Every structure is written in structure tokens, then in C-alpha cells.
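User: We ran a pulldown and think these components assemble together. Before we commit to crystallization trials, I'd like a predicted model of the whole complex to look at. Sequences follow.
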Amino acid sequence: MESHLRKRCSHCLIEINAEPPVTDEEGNPFCCQGCLGVYRILRSEGLEEFYKRRSDWHPGTPEFVSVEAGRFERLVRRENAHSVLELTLSGIRCASCIWLIERYLGRADGIIEVRVNYATHVARIVFDHAKITVGEILQRISRLGYVPRPELKGTSSGLLKEEARGLLIRFGTGAFFSMQIMLLSVALYAGYFQDITQYYRRAFQLISWALATPVILYAGYPFIKGTITGIKRGFLNMDTLVTLGAVSAYLFSIVMIFRGGEVYFDSAAMIITIILLGRYIETVSKTRASRVVSMLTELVPESVRVVTSGGTKKTLIDHLRKGDHVEILPGERIPVDGVVIEGETEVEESMLTGEARPVKKQKGDDVYAATINLSSPIRVEVRATGEETLLNTIIRTVQEAQTRKAPVQKIADRVSRYFVLLVTMFASITFIYWYQRASIDVALINTVSVLVVACPCALGIATPLAILIGSQVASTRGIVIKGGDVIERLSRATHILLDKTGTLTSGRFSLEETIFFGNRDTALMIARGMESLSSHPVARTLSSGDSAHDVDIKEHRTIPGRGIYAVVNGRQCYLGNLDMLKETVMEIPEGIISLHNDMTERGRCLVFLVVDGKIEAVFILSDALREHAERLIRELKLIGIVPWIVSGDTEDVVREVARKVGVDRWYSSVQPPEKSKIVRELKAQGYSVVMVGDGINDAPALIEADTGISVGRATDIALESADVVIIRPELLLIKDIHILSKRVMRTIKQNLFWAFSYNIITIPLAMAGRIHPIVSAILMVTSSLVVVGSSLRLMKFKRS
Amino acid sequence: MIWTVFLLIFVVFVLGLAGYFIYIWAVKSGQYDDPEGPKYRMLDDEDE
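Assistant: Here's a predicted model for the assembly, 848 residues in total across the polymer chains.
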């Protein structure tokens, strides 16, 4: 409804203020020179198809950073006759971005192959060093608005990838041998009923033994290792249970071969294989989440242009001193914290504040490192560089909090601990009972069979499967969940702290109240008519909905810094701010100035309509609440969660928003460290806290909270700090994800019940010495299938 | 008769082993690293 009135940058699709800062010869609007540059490259290379195919692009400014080739030179490997460079690309917003990069880069002379991984955004570039340099490759990437970053071995995502591969190989090995064992087991089971000869039985058992050995020793190695370190440190977990079951089944079966009993090789191998599958699922979902992580400190450019008496010269940022003057061109990132001393421009500060709208900066205004200069060159006096910048202070707080945050023990591990104790108890009872009734021989056999059947195969997939399906359900709704423990913590939430700007409010203005001095309808008609021709953000709120008919508008023009002028139905009309009012009206009615000051203090924005030198109307605009903000609060309260507002904004503004959405408790003028202090205090009282925010100022609190959720167009650091990232700008998803997490936890608990129900049947049988491998195998498979089925029910989760 | 049974078991094992080795090769050569990619790539025209 509003989209045709607003302008969007033709390349990056962000909304643009007023007149587009940059247009090309055909009049297409752009937000900055950089975007225009990309647009031109695509046109000249015949790659415009990109614009047609990128249906899943999230609007947002690309970063145009010049990267030093030095760091990347070291990463180049020789492979056969070619050079290979692997790097991580940031700024990829859609699947078509990968298509674009591969095409554009692949066309360059000297490039042999380019392949970008869709899941991890790691590019593998094979090239001929004689024809193209690393610098040229990097330049081609950054020219498109993507930022190449060194892919280092040992980074968290690299490690996870190795881990996932290792688990996959172990799982494949386990699966292959288990299948072979199953073939023989079927023969043995059939033979049990049809009287197999001793000869074949012994032979099949021996072959099964040979096949089971690699499963236990190789595929099962992670569990055995986990058990040993666990026992050394004195705790029991799922590894202990798995090892106890599989290894005792294995050893017991070996003994049984020679004593002519039944063997459990199939159960032992199956336990390990299925639980490995669970581990693999877990690792893969972790890899997916960690790709959001970015290297923040690299946002700040390494070299800067210093203003000297003889012009400007390039220098390294380390050589800068306080008081130096630096020049920043449009499209560049500001390298330092400082004060503008020359020029006037718009700066995108979204990485700090989460506010998508560019901020106007002129002489005397503060600018911060890592923000992007959008429209025109400025000169800045350096106040702080490197470690002392605002960006770095916040990053440090985040890192400190990250190291403090202890991982939560997984529910399966917690349950297993008690279960291991229980099993040991049952095993002891069995041993004592049979030792007194029969021989030590019988006692040992029965005790071990208790241990064997005690390990529920389904336990291994009970949690990962439910979490995987839960995460997938979430991701189809635009929510990324980083890890299973997040779901568990989220499901226990008692308090939810919401940031205001960018979270509860949209950061855009809407009409709140209008004061008329003359005829109401005429004033509205004139205002709407005038504003429908303007693309200023304030204008949109007045003109939205109705289009201007039966209004005759002439001489429409913009008065920079004041408002707009037009002749409407023959009358001279001005629409604009207080400065405009002062210049066009001789006698300003009493109270207008104080109303203006009062309202501005409370975060309002006033627009005056002047017709023929007389004030006709005052429009009071306020930062609009996001859609469903009120409903979210109401519904959160209904399900028993306490909502608070924690904002850096002034008291009046926050109180107003709190009143509107129905939040009873709020904090205003809160600095980032205090935000996390509030979270900490709540946690200390035993509450489970969810923090919702989007800016760098929220990052410390996002980490401190039990669960951090970032919403909408969040900043890089907020994305990294949050446990849950909600990509779509829909507030109600916050409630949905909480409900989904509860549903997942319920499914996990049900799954654990089904997994253990297998034991409820088999343990008594084993204690009585009446268990047969076929019974245990069938029950094991049944309980696993029930777990799979009950997890799949999660897919039916509907949003409210 | 006896040896046919063991021969069959052996043949099954070797066949399975072939599949197993293909699987190991696939994992090691990175076939499972990018499960997202193929669904996009198959729609691209390879006209260049």
C-alpha cells in the first residue's frame, strides 16, 4: 500500500530518504555510489538476470571495503599447476548472490574455477597466479559489495565441519557393519525357531563377532573416550550409558559364543550406529547456526586518508593519533570514533543502533568507527581509534560475557545420570539374587544381560531428532535457532526483556495526533495532496492510504532543511518544521513553541501546515509501534511470561510506549552494561530471562540472558550474540518460538519416556534371566520407531 | 552346500564393502559438505 510512494535503492532495496542521493542516467534511484557501481557492473557484464532471480534477498546495504591482499596471500595453496584460495564471504543475502559471485569472478582472466558453498559461504577459488593476483580477485569480490574474509583452519566453523565429517564416516562405518550383522542375526533368529545346527550357529556368531569389532572400537570410539574422561572427572552421562550397554553386550556375546548361548552383537552395533546418527544431526544443526558468526573487528578499515597541510595521504590506522584529521568518502566505513569538522552527510549506523534509517551528520556531530558514510565526503577529527572505540568496548563486553556463560547440561545427559545409577542398582540386585539362588555363573550372565538391555537405542535420537525437527519448523518461519540447549532454556522462560527502538517500535514515524486551527477537511486535503508528491519519511505517514484527487497542485518544490512548498488550489502552502514555521508566519500562536519543545522531548516530531501565511494545522508524529506489539505483550502475559521494557531512550518516550503496549515495568536511559546488569540481577533471583534486541547496545544483554533473541534487521554483533535470530520483522514470532520450544521439550520428554519404556519391559525380563536377543532387538527397533514418529508430529506445529 | 552359504556371505560382504568405499570417498571428497547447493545449481544454465 505504501510501497509505491517510497523509493527503494535499485540495487540493495533499502528505503531511501527524501530525494535519492544518487541516480543513474535513466533515473533509477540508489542509496549510494557503491550500489550504483554494482548496478553498472551487472549491466555491462550482462548479469542483470540477478535482479530477476533474487526473490529471497533481504534488503540491506552492501559493504564496500577495500581489503588488504596481504592477509590472503598467505592462505594461497598450490594444487597441481594452479593456486587455490579459500575464503569466507560475508554480505551474502540470497542464493542468487552465490550465482552472481561465481559468474562474475569466473569470467575474469586467469580464474579457473570458483565454487561457493551455499551452507557455509566459503568460496574456493582456483586460479592461475601468472594471470591474476590475489589483490585483483579480492577487488572483484568487494566491488560487488561482498567482503572477503580469511578462512582459517581452526576457526569454530572449520572445526565443526571436521567434526561433522568424522561423525559421518563413523556413522557410515557403523551402518555398513550393522547391516551385515543384521543379515546373520536374521539367520540366527530364524534358526532359533527352526533348530539351526550347532555348526552354522557357531560360524554365524563368529562372523558377527568379526563384524561387530570395528563398530565397537572404531565407530564407538567417541563414546568410549567420552566415558573414560567422564569417569576420570567423576560424572556419568549418555556416553557412559551407551558404552556400558554396547561394550558389555559385546563382551558378553564373546563369552556366549564359547559357552553356546545367544549373542547380542546386533544390539551392540545398532546402539552405536543409531546414537552416532543422533550426534551427527546435532553437529550439523550447530554448523548451520555458526555461519552467522562474523569477524566484527574487521569491520574497521586498516588504512585511512589523513588530512595534512599538503592534501591527503594514505596511512595505516595504527599510525593515527588523537586530534588527527581524516577524510572519509561516500561508501566508506568510518575508521575511528570522532567529531565531524567539515562536511554534511548521512551515515548508516545500523551496525551500532539497529536503526535502519540513515542518520544526518554535520559539523560537531559524533561519528563512530565501523559506521558507513553514505552521501558525501566528510572530515573527522579523531577522538579514539582501535581498542578505545565504542565498537571495541562493546565487543569486549560481549567476549567477556561469552566466556562467562556456562553451557547447560543437556536433558538426555541429566536423565542418563540417574538412569546409570538405577541400572547399576538393578544389576547389583540381580547379581546378589542369582548368586544366592544359583551359581556365580548364572549370576554373572544375568547381571550382564541387565546391563546389555539397559541401554536404550532410542535415547540417542530422542533429543537430537526432536530438536532438529523443531529447528527446521522454526526456520521455515524465518527463525534460526543456534543449538539444542537454546530450545531448552527458552522453554523455561519466565521474564522477557524487550528493547524499544527497532524491536517494539519500527523506527519509523506515524501520525499520532492532529491539531487544527481552521477547517479540518481542507487542511487534511492540502497536506495529503502536498505530501503525496514528496518521498520524505515524514511525508509518507500523512499521505498513506488516500491518494490526492480533486486537488490542483502547482509549483511543488522542496525547501532543504525546512519542508515543502506548493500552490494548492491557488493558495500558497508550506508544510514543514519549526524553522519553516518561524520563517513563514508572522504571529506564531501562543503555546506552539512550548508544545513543540514539550513534544520533541517526548520523542515526537511536529509538522506544521501553513496556508497563506496562517498556521492551519499541527501534525504530531511518533515513532510507530510495530504491528502486533500490543498483542504480543497481551499474549505473553496470558501464557504467564512477565514482559519488561529496557531501553536506552529517554524516560518520557519509554513510559509512553510502555503505556501503549501495556507493559507495567520499564527501564529508560539504560546504558549497554546496565542492560546486562538488569538481566544478571533477574537471573540471580532464579528467573529465566529472555532478552530481545537488535542493536550493538543490546549485545551484552543478549549474551547475559538465558536466551537472547534478535529481531528484524539486527546488527552483526546482535546476530552473533543472540541464541535465536528472527529474520522476519514479525513480533508475534517471539511468542511462537517460545511455544514451539515448549512443544519441542514436551516431545523430548515423551521421546525419553518411549525410549525408556523399552527398558521397563526388558530389564525385568533380564533380571529374571528370561531375555532372548530377539526380544531385545524387536523392542529396541519398536521404541526407536515410536520416537521417530512422535518427533515427526512436531512438523504439524501451526503458528498462532 | 556348506561352502555356498559362506561364499554367499562373503559375496554380500564384498558388495557391501564396495558401497562402503564409495561412501567414504563421497564424504572425504566433500560431497556432503554443501547439502544446500545442488537444489539451486540444478536450475542454473550452464551456458558459459
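The first strand of chain A starts at residue 22 and ends at 23. That may be worth checking against your pulldown data before setting up trials.

User: Thanks, that helps.
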